[in-house]
Amino acid sequence: MHPGRVFITLVLIIVVAVEAIGYRHYRSDMAAWRGVEQSLGQLHAALERAPAAKLAPQIDSARDAISGFSVSPHRFPRDHYARLEAADRGLQYLDLAANGVQNIRNWEAMAAYSDVTKLLPRGCDGDHVAFSPALISEAFGVAGSYFIKEATSGATDKERLNWQRGFYPPLDLPRENAACELINRATARLVASTGKAHGPRRLSPWRYEIDVSNPTGCLMTPYSDDRAIPIPHSQIYHFHLDAQRQARLEQVFCNADKPGDAIRVNINGQRYDALWLLDESGINYATQLTPRVPPSMSPAAY
């Protein structure tokens, strides 16, 4: 055989062998990643039914699957580095949620977790920003669940945009604490001037008593007299509001149902059919509960 033909034949054999080896490695990568996807998918499905605190075995299993995949180089999936990073972040948040975020009880500690603070409602407690510690674990669980989903099935551009936007503005501690200080001072001055003018009587002898039934756990921020009211986790499915002047629900997001189908409101003991409006985000709703012409009024305590 001509030496040139021999050389070409050897080159072709080498190319075919390399391609065959590469194909086997690719198929091996696919099988390895399917194991990771299966473990992460099972964890994500479990998070739909139970809080992270009850899913320690599933969290550990997902971490073991990721560790096993990471010990050797892979070519599939092509974006596996980004997916593994998302999975690691999701598992970190789920670990914190499962452990009850015991060391995170103030906004200074929470400031390091921008993915989570945008899920937490906040208001003022005196002269500083306040939030419900009972909601922290749930917020970490929601953030962890999002990143686990992104690691397994990816996220659409709209889902990423909604996630980046969040439910609440980015946390700015100095600015928001300063705003609470101003509100606290103004409230103190108002109380002092009202006390001088009217003695011990309150501003209004009436109040609205509002009961909100939220059986599917829609996310929302209630406002009473223009003050955001954080909802403790233990009360998220049914909570009570008192208001002297006005009350509303903002940034209401329900996983599947529309708020009108998922949320029931009673005001002063009578059913109230709220008018739900889609806000500028395009995904959240809002409703004004009061002022309105109430069917009855409850006298406030003096």
- Uncertain ranges: 15-23, 198-205, 293-302
**CATH topology assignment of the largest domain:** Four Helix Bundle (Hemerythrin (Met), subunit A)
Could you give the order of the helices and strands?
A: HHHHHEEHHHEEEEEHEEEEE
Main beta-sheet strand count, sense and barrel state: 5 strands, antiparallel
* Average pLDDT metric: 76
List the main descriptive attributes of the protein structure presented here.
disordered C terminus, 302 residues, 47% helix, single chain, elongated, 5-stranded antiparallel β-sheet, 3 domains, alpha+beta, Four Helix Bundle (Hemerythrin (Met), subunit A)
Your description of this structure?
The chain is of the alpha+beta class and 302 residues long. The protein has 3 domains: 3-101 and 133-165, Four Helix Bundle (Hemerythrin (Met), subunit A), CATH 1.20.120; 169-201; 204-299, no CATH class. Helix content is 47%, strand content 17%. The protein is built from 9 helices and 12 strands. The strands form 3 sheets. Strands 3, 6, 8, 9 and 12 form a 5-stranded antiparallel sheet that branches. A 5-stranded antiparallel sheet has the order 5-4-7-11-10, with no helix packed on it. The chain has a two-stranded antiparallel sheet with strand order 1-2. Mean pLDDT is 76; it is low at 15-23, 198-205 and 293-302.
